[in-house]
Structures are given as C-alpha cells and as structure tokens.
C-alpha cells in the first residue's frame, strides 16, 4: 500500500531530485563562465587584481564555490540513489524506479562536473593568469 504525499512535500522532493541531477552541471557552467570572464576581462584591462583582490584569489573563489555546489549535488544524488534503491518495488510504483534512475544519472553527471571544475581550477591556478 502506498501513502500519499502532501503536494508541498512532493514539490520539495521533486526540486531536490532535480538539483541532485542538474546541480553539478549548473555549477560547472557557473565556474566556466565566471573563471573565464574574470580572467579575460581583468587581463584585457591590464590589471593583475580585481577591485583590490588578487586575481588568483578571485579565480580560486570561482573554483571553490561551484565545487561546493557540485559536491552538495553529488551528496544529494547519492542519498537519493540509496534511498530509492531500498524502495524499488517488484512491479508496483513506477515513479520510485524513475527517481532511482534520475538519481543514478545525477550521480555520474555530478562526478563528471566536479572533476571538470577541479581540473579547470587547477589549470587556471597553475598557469600564469595574464600571459602577455
């Protein structure tokens, strides 16, 4: 027998599941746009700092903040995957199976996004910011 969830609980659970699936990809997008634009625009203007803040520190922030978002999405997708795995019915509720599949896809997407953020950050921080 299945119990019905309140609409508010179903909505918050659905939004958390979508964050677990797409949170890492969105974090990687933010990282790519922010790190590249800060580096390019600051160097193009001929500066080595961003409003008094060192450029390497600003780029480090564009790595750490999105990496934290991707790690949170990864943790949430692992949690959703484990919780739905235990509740997989034998031919009953199909929405649990779909949630399990989405959580599994989110797990791998978030791993990929987190590694891309880390590798992009290593490249941005190891190479000199403004090569003239």
Question: Can you give a write-up of this model?
Answer:
The protein is mainly alpha-helical and 132 residues long. The chain has three helices and two strands; from the N terminus they run H-E-E-H-H. The protein has helices at 7-44, 55-86, 94-126, and strands spanning 49-50, 53-54. Strands 1-2 form a two-stranded antiparallel ribbon. Strand 1 (49-50) and strand 2 form a beta hairpin. Helix 1 (7-44) packs antiparallel against helix 2 (55-86), helix 1 runs parallel beside helix 3 and helix 2 runs antiparallel to helix 3. The chain is elongated and about 65 Å long. The model has no long low-confidence stretch (mean pLDDT 83).
Key terms for this structure?
single chain; 132 residues; mainly alpha; 3 helices; elongated
Q: Count every beta strand, where a strand is a DSSP E run of 2 or more residues.
A: 2
Global mean pLDDT:
83
**General shape:** elongated
Biggest β-sheet description: 2 strands, antiparallel
* Percentage of residues in strands: under 5%
Approximate helicity band: over 70%
What structural class results from the helix and strand content? mainly alpha
Distance between the termini: 68 Å
| Count of runs of 4 or more consecutive helical residues | 3
Low-confidence stretches: none
Strand order of the largest sheet: 1-2
Order of helices and strands: HEEHH
The value of Rg in angstroms is: 20 Å
Brief summary of the model shown:
The chain is built from 3 helices and 2 strands. It has helices at 7-44, 55-86, 94-126, and strands at residues 49-50, 53-54. Helix 1 packs antiparallel against helix 2, helix 1 packs parallel to helix 3 (94-126) and helix 2 runs antiparallel to helix 3 (94-126).
């Amino acid at each position: 027998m299945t119990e019905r969830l309140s609409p508010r609980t179903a909505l918050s659970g659905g939004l958390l599941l979508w964050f677990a699936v797409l949170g890492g990809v969105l974090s990687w997008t933010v990282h790519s746009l922010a790190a590249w634009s800060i580096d390019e625009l600051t160097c193009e203007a001929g500066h080595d700092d961003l409003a008094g803040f060192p450029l390497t520190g600003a780029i480090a922030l564009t790595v750490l903040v999105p990496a934290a978002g991707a790690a949170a999405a990864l943790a949430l997708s692992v949690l959703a995957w484990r919780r739905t795995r235990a509740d997989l019915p034998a031919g009953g509720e199909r929405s649990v199976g779909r949630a399990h599949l989405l959580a599994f896809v989110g797990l791998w997407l978030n791993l990929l996004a987190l590694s891309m953020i880390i590798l992009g950050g290593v490249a941005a921080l190891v190479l000199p910011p403004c090569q003239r």
